[in-house]
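Two proteins were folded this term; both appear here.
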Amino acid sequence: SMKVKVISRNPDDYLRETKHDIHKLVRNHNLPTDSFRAQTEYTRALNSTKLERVFAKPFLASLDGHTEGVSSIAKHPLRDSVVLSASRDGQVRIWDLPTKHCLATVQSHDGPLNGMSVDSVEGMSYVTVGQDCQLKTWRLPHPIGGKKMNVPLNQITLDGVAHAVSHLASSTDFVTCGEDVSVWKASRDTPVRTYKLGVNTIHAIKGNPIEEAVIVGATMDRSIWILDTRAQAPLKKVTMKLRPNAISWNPMVINEFVVANDDYNLYTFDLRHLSHPKNVHVGHTNAVMDVDFAPTGKEFVSGSYDRTVRIFPNDNGHSREVYHTKRMQSVLSVMFSMDNKLVLSGSDEMNIRVWKARAAEKMGPMNPRERAALEYAEKLRETYKEHPQIKRIARHRHVPKSVYSAAKEHRIIRQSEKRKEANRRAHAAEGEIPHIPERKNHMVTNEEL
């Protein structure tokens, strides 16, 4: 018979390792020098991190009513509680978030709705474009006792299909894109200016929320371009390896925007240096379909075909939150609320889901002692976030099996490619195979127009 020897470690060894880690944190991060106080605070930070994950319940509500996939979500710039959603059958619904009540339902187009945008000055109307070559302006009902408007204020027949629409900053003017880029005034039936940008279809466009004249867009040939409406042609153009799907400007930084791409990544660009992205945000395992910045400009939310919603810090390449449910299918549209408290996602199975921006945040009134305790716990987690145990617990997220398997496969592919490149470089002449940074590896060309 074979004897099995069980080796058990002394509990003092674990205590000794924990003390060693605490003393290391004290030296590197200027923490309290009192050993007993440091150990007490570390224990409280560890317990607080565990409780934060226990009470992380991000899902709040589901807004039902659409009969097709929710392809677009728009926020009201002046009313935090009003949200607009559009489905693939051309139906637009206007929601009141606190009551989860649908204020109005409008059949805006005889087919798929390609885009919509709310007036950012008065907030009394919104514009929609559809696959039926129609551009329509609608009046928004008031949340309390407003009349439902099923007839558009203005209707224009376009020469071609418009794929997106966006209002300009501090103006009632807006831009549409399709075969070309057109700048419109609310009081005119013909565009003020039209820009021809080649033979490729322009499928995404976004006006800068700070500078009225600056517009960024994307075309089907995988290129991103910058346009100033005071000029006669685009200023810059850059081509990526795969197609950009959506664009969102940082509302606090005039020259920064993020792009959702077909290669499962998101890219933060600086308007002044368009030749390569400022940051690459990874984590999704399928094409990223939509992205939207938080009103603070410190983070953004993205939705993907991998059936997850992720929240990324603006300066970090990895997401801090991953939201998913069993029934949620491909996420087609996402939105950050104007109060920075909620995240909305529209998916292919006709639902709009409302999530917390902070998964463990308590929603509702708090007494002063409770608020002080939560602020103290948050400060402890921030202070000891680099400790291995706390960092491991805070970063861990459960994801669906399909996402986990795909992420593992992508990781193996990346490691294999790096290993092959290192082998080729080791057996080639010096300087023959250059090192290309990851931020420049996804770009093809850069043009000054």
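Next, the second protein.
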Amino acid sequence: MTAALPSLALAVLCLLQAGAQVPVQPDLDTEKFAGMWHVTAITSFSFLKMKDGMKSSMAIIGFMPEGDLAMKLVWPLMDKCQKFELLFQQSGQAGHYAAQEKRDLHVMETDYSYCAVLHEAHHSEGEPSMALQLLTVEQDVSPQLLQEFMELIPTMGLTEDMLAILPKSGPEGTGWQ
């Protein structure tokens, strides 16, 4: 996986320059991808104001029988946990999901056992927003993987100052029971 991210970054840059869509994991194996992940880094304009108070969150990803992606998230903040439950409908392309035609989720790449990169776009009446998320099975992230994730950021039209490398959160602060 770690050797694949730089080549993915180059491929994404070429695709974006050609006006193509965000790439997805070829032949995404939903059974292998389902499970508990830690959001260890996120890049988004939406999180700029909160990024200093954020900690690593947990995401439980599952798939419905019809192929839709169900995601439960808990974001531990300074004084509370923010919980979300999201349902993304399969868009017809494996690895691409949509929620109410306002939010797109792409599983850009995963090795299923260590890390994954998600791209999320939110289309609203106001300013559209975009995020890249680095998910890992463990809360620890290697410096090499983090560097490769950082190299991917500008290829998606985001900037490095939007990056939040999320510190570990303890099990008592996650809100999972």
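The domain at 23-162 is CATH 2.40.128.20 (Lipocalin). Strands lie at 35-44, 57-63, 69-76, 81-90, 96-99, 103-110, 115-122, 129-136, 163-165. These notes refer to the second protein only.
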